[in-house]
Amino acid sequence: MNGGLVQRLAQLNLIRDPATVGTKTLVITRPRQHPVHPDDGDTDQETDRLLGQQRSDDTGFYDEKEKEANKKKGRSKEVLIEGVLFRARYLGSTQLVSEGQPTKTTRMMQAEEAVSRIKAPDGESQPSTEVDLFISTEKIMVLNTDLKEIMMDHALRTISYIADIGDLVVLMARRRVLPTDDSGNSIQKTPKMICHVFESDEAQFIAQSIGQAFQVAYLEFLKANGIEDHSFVKEMDYQEVLNSQEIFGDELQMFAKKELQKEVVVPKMKSEILGVVVVESGWGSMVPTVVIANLSPTGAAAKCGQLNIGDQIIAINGVSLVGLPLSTCQNYIKNTKYNTAVKLTVVPCPPVVEVKIRRPDTKYQLGFSVQNGVICSLLRGGIAERGGVRVGHRIIDINSQSVVAVPHEKIVNLLATSVGEIRMKTMPTSIFRLLTGQETPQYI
């Protein structure tokens, strides 16, 4: 799988927990790969429904997609696959005439025309809907996760052009004409294109991700057909960039070597709490467990003198906490209230995680999204994940430059333009907020 980019999709199970969107990769199922059929793709009926109703009643559309998926499910095997989500604001859709083979300049002019039709003038209220833009090597979907609906579903091959204009993204897709007369013959119509306009602080990243999806899809097509196109391969293959990554501090070794773990026995009074706050280690960490985010100065854990903020708890009284939900881990800790001693197996770790990413050129996307300094989504298998970036962490500094009080736009620009060896320091957002007094610790 080139670049770890998301693999194929066909139908949504639509998001098991809408609250996880943006923090986890969306998992969907699809039938086993089958030949491209001429009536795959987007129809005039679907597009007219979208343009005519502007999402006022998408239920029927979703139901049709679901029925179609159920038919496919019945005749072929399913596999689990993943996709990348970007949070955006959907502003609206329009359609434009598209004849011949337009140049890139013409496409950009069309994108600007679509924006002029949909974007409200400065100073006026802009109607919009919060959506998730789902990108893979086969499809681009627009999801309303609050209502559990698929708003739009375009096969990647139907996408004609993608443009980022400031904080706007314009997605252009070809419309397919279905037979409309009684004899089944298709009626000649003027070729048209549907244009969707989105607003996002990550407009450039979204456009880059779609571009990479095309590149990976093309490379996979060549491989599947035994073709080698050396002229298409970039100066440095993305896989080589991935292989060059290493986790700064070698986190995996810290967990793999028993001698780096330690057992701490915390003596305490019966009915006394441990006096700790624990948070998740972060999606993307080598070992998913809980981290000590705060210690009560008068609590048993702090008094023992062997525990520190940042330490990762592997087990409590011999029960492993690795891979368990945060709430379950918290309950295990609470259940020690009436013990007179608690044995913790911990891996001593500093609260700040040091990340080192090697990025030879800006054409290789980092593979993560940032919102107000917090890493909110991560591309599975991308260079950022291999470099140690974790969802839910607050970026403290980039290349020794503090970004704690830096505006979101500057952080995004700094990351977008950084090349070479990029060093970052991050920590779980909960720890950051506790240490800076933005949250009051609730000890257990």
Automatic annotation (TrEMBL):
Per UniProt, the ranges with Basic and acidic residues bias are: 55-74
Domain PDZ, which positions? Answer: 263-348, 354-430
Q: Which residues does the annotated region (Disordered) include?
A: 29-74
**Does this entry carry the keyword Transcription regulation?**
no
Q: Does the keyword Phosphoprotein apply?
A: yes
Q: Outline the extent of the PID domain.
A: 83-228
Listed GO biological process terms = chemical synaptic transmission
Keywords per UniProt: Phosphoprotein, Repeat, Transport
Q: What is this protein called?
A: Protein lin-10
